[in-house]
Design brief:
By secondary structure, the protein is mostly helical. The chain is built from five helices and four strands; from the N terminus they run ββαββαααα. The chain has helices at residues 18-28, 45-54, 57-64, 68-84, 87-98, and strands at 4-5, 14-15, 31-33, 40-42.
Length: 99
């Protein structure tokens, strides 16, 4: 069984590592429009990263109607991914692939 699975609703694709999973989320799924600032960001990890890094926790809770547990879960996901992947480097690679 794979160690990483895409958690975007309805997907469930499995991958050997975090980087492959995040790459999949950014390239195989539609973008997500942030409910706070209307920015279009890749779905999945990058959407979580955007919300947590660019907005306050209160804004995130209000816009997405989350409770504290839901926010903590997303903070945990962000921490786990960032401990396994150089996400800034991956973001640059993805931008280079697009351009």
């Amino acid at each position: 069984m794979s160690a990483w699975q895409c958690a975007i609703r309805g997907c469930g694709a499995q991958f050997p590592d975090a980087e492959a999973t995040i790459r999949h989320q950014a390239t195989a799924h539609d973008t997500h429009t942030c409910r706070i600032c209307d920015a279009d960001v890749p779905e999945g990890y990058f959407a979580i990263r955007h919300a947590l890094d660019e907005h306050s926790r209160a804004e995130y809770v209000r816009a997405y109607e989350f409770d504290a547990d839901a926010v903590r879960e997303r903070e945990w996901v962000k921490t786990v991914v960032e401990s396994a992947v150089d996400v800034d480097d991956l973001a640059e690679q993805l931008a280079d692939d697009e351009g």
